[in-house]
Design goal:
four-stranded parallel β-sheet, alpha/beta, TIM Barrel, 6 strands, 2 domains, about 260 residues
Length: about 260
């Protein structure tokens, strides 16, 4: 891992001859991936980070921005140029254990649901409690076992039932029928061909997309970054949303909060 001094020296040398592209990551993941593509340096982006945090560009508090700069610098092995606005002044135990517990024993899973229901009831507030079982995304795509768990969770007081990973019409219908009249949440994480209308007709009450929209953004970013890194072209920038449009939205949004 290069030292801070090494990075500063390398960064200065990059400015001495030739031309280099310095992409702007807005989080650790993008910083790491841009570095992976072979870029020799990175630069933070105040607008990219601000919009991801729900602010207009220029509205991120100084301490928050400083923490962000530190995390990018610490994550990167290459030099990082910091976008620090105008100076802001006028003058989690054990990965192995966690993996082991991803799919709980049936009795333990049920006990956890019952405990959660009791805690929610004690706290009050009419919270909608969704109970999930993850066999289909944890290497155990057993529909019978999934339904057994969801029915038990429903009986234990879950308000909504969720099994991420079920995808076929048959799996969805069987799940909906098994826990009726309790509602089912369906995760849509791919272009399966189903529309909202299709899913509604199967009896599903709630559709979530998990991290898929973030991956949609990643898809566009990676395609553009690869085009720059591998072809030296910026054609993918055509038609992108303007900074002014995003600033206008987030400025108005902050006022409405």
């Amino acid at each position: 891992m290069p030292t801070t001094a090494d990075k500063r020296t390398a960064f200065r040398k990059l400015h001495e001859v030739g031309c280099f592209v310095i992409p702007n990551p807005w989080n650790i993941g993008t910083a790491r991936y841009f570095q992976h593509l072979g870029f020799k340096a990175l630069a933070t982006t105040s607008s990219g980070f601000a919009h991801a945090q729900g602010f207009a560009d220029g509205a991120v508090p100084r301490d928050v921005m400083l923490d962000h700069l530190r995390e990018i610098v610490e994550a990167a092995d290459v030099p990082v140029n910091a976008d620090f606005e105008g100076g802001y002044a006028d003058a989690p135990e054990g990965v192995a254990e966690s993996v082991r517990l991803c799919i709980y024993d049936f009795d333990l899973a049920l006990a956890r649901v019952r405990a959660a229901r009791a805690a929610i009831d004690k706290a009050g507030g009419d919270v909608v409690f969704t109970a999930r079982t993850e066999g289909f995304v944890r290497g155990r795509p057993d529909l019978d076992e999934t339904i057994r768990r969801l029915k038990a969770f429903a009986d234990a007081g879950a308000d909504c039932l969720y099994s991420p990973g079920i995808k076929t019409r048959e799996e969805i219908v069987a799940t909906v029928k098994a826990v009726a009249p309790k509602p089912v949440n369906l995760l849509m994480s791919s272009a399966s061909g189903f529309t909202v209308t299709d899913i509604a007709e199967l009896g599903v009450r709630r559709i979530s997309v998990g991290g898929t929209l973030a991956r949609v953004a990643w898809n566009a970013v990676l395609r553009a970054a690869r085009e720059i890194a591998e072809r030296g072209k910026f054609d993918s920038f055509a038609g992108v949303v303007g900074n002014a449009e995003l600033n206008a939205f987030f400025s108005g949004d902050v006022k409405r909060r």
